[in-house]
Amino acid sequence: xxxxxxxxxxxxxxxxxxxxxxxxxxxxxxxxxxxxxxxxxxxxxxxxxxxxxxxxxxxxxxxxxxxxxxxxxxxxxxxxxxxxxxxxxxxxxxxxxxxxxxxxxxxxxxxxxxxxxxxxxxxxxxxxxxxxxxxxxxxxxxxxxxxxxxxxxxxxxxxxx
Length: 161
What we know:
Oligomer: single chain
Helix content: 25-40%
CATH topology of the largest domain: Alpha-Beta Plaits
Radius of gyration: 20 Å
CATH architecture of the largest domain: 2-Layer Sandwich
Largest sheet: 4 strands, antiparallel
CATH class of the largest domain: Alpha Beta
CATH superfamily of the largest domain: Lrp/AsnC effector binding domain/regulation of amino acid metabolism (RAM) domain
Strand content: 15-25%
């Protein structure tokens, strides 16, 4: 499947099922969708090779693993030069408690999703971020709870007018 090829209804149903349960065996997935096992396997392989399916992994409970605090941290760099961005990204990539890092447009340059074992641990992380070269500002947002955690919609996007 080429990147510019549109997903058909069967591909979208496969994606929806795998988002709900990434452990589905090919035979069970094919039966749920109503297609042959070989066709299902071919389609899943095509979705993976085209990059539509990036990875399949378990979602773990942070608190069950001792990470009591989840926070989002907005970082503003002092410079927008490519070297400053690459230096920051390399430093963040080496920090295991930073779960995700998004590059942004606007007031902040990056948004990080972080975990820590305690509020004190979060404070240490913030000091660690502040010590990185080229940091202009840091804002932290401790998470109080999750209001929504949904899979990505797989229906076709609405047409632009």
